[in-house]
Amino acid sequence: MRAWQVDRLGEPEDVMQFVDVPAPTLADGQLRVRVRAAAANFPDVLMCRGLYQVKPDLPFTPGVELCGEVLEVGPGAQGRVGDRVIGGSVLPHGAFADEAVVDAAAVLPAPDGLDDAQAGSFFIGYQTGWFGLHRRAHLQPGETLLVHAAAGGVGSAAVQLGKAAGARVIGVVGGPAKAQVARDLGADVVVDRHGEDFVEVVKRETGGRGADVVYDPVGGETYDRSTKCIAFEGRILVIGFAGGTIQTPPLGHALVKNYSVVGLHWGLYAKVMPQLIGECHAALTRMVDEGRIDPLVSERLPLDAVGDGVQRLADGTTTGRVVYDAGVGA
């Protein structure tokens, strides 16, 4: 079968190789799936660079989430051949391949209201957004939500989930094209950081009060600037560090302004409180059925173009989700 493999560490364009490999074999509790679609995520970039907390042995196939069709049920696993499922892949057999491996206990039914590419980009971004906004930040109707990288993968999901929760959403993007994407997603106010200071915009739009919740997958200077426009008793959600810098927050500032710095390691819920993953999926599926969320798939790529898509994600030039879609070019 065809697969992208990483056999050394570096930039995706340098280390991802498109090769033929044997089909994966299964351990206890696993399923082999035909990959119908798989979104590129920033952890894929970081794993290529060797900078992610998960460091699979070399060589490995990246692609941490997928929509797949069950081809084989391993020993001790529950599942049915032909089921359409979503979930995370089991490395080293990631989703940027014709076939991948998943844990049977961790997969979820793909929502009927989503096509394969949308379903293949639904698991990580929307689960992260739901846990961050609802369980960690307790976003309330009428509050102001500031979303950084609002036209990106996790940011676009946060915009839609914030609107669905009844919040007023301010989205920060880089460039006019991304600004239009954020508007189309439903952001009430869009800030192009290349031409405006989001701190000043947030203060103006909130009458000086600031944002109640900040959704920050960027980190670094973006986090530091967010502390200048956080409301009294606001919550800054630390989602990730796509900007490349892990900041050291000045806790004295949090003390004198009465705001909270809230971390989210969504993947840990699967180990500590796995029942919440299914509850979240049920809530998100209802939102799909009600037309309240609609995953933004900006590019549908054939498998042989995935390496370029992952590199463009690394370079910060993509909007929405870049997805391997097995139906493209088939």
Automatic annotation (TrEMBL):
Residues 10-324 form the Enoyl reductase (ER) domain. This is NADPH2:quinone reductase. Signal peptide: none annotated. One of its GO terms (molecular function) is oxidoreductase activity. Pfam families: ADH_N, ADH_zinc_N.
